[in-house]
Amino acid sequence: VRPYAFRSCFIDPFQGTVMANFATKTLKAKTAVIFTDNSSDYSKGLAESFEAQFVKNGGTIVGKEAFLQKDQDFKSTLTKIKVMNADTIFIPAYYEEVGKIAKQARELGINTPLIGTDGFDDPKVVEIAGAAALNNTFFSNHYSAQDTDPRIQKFVAAFKAEYGQEPNALAALGYDAALMVIDSIKRANSTDPAKLRDALEQTKDLQVVTGVITMDANHNPIKSGVVIEMKDGKQVFKEKINP
Question: What is the pTM of this model?
Answer without folding.
Answer: 0.90
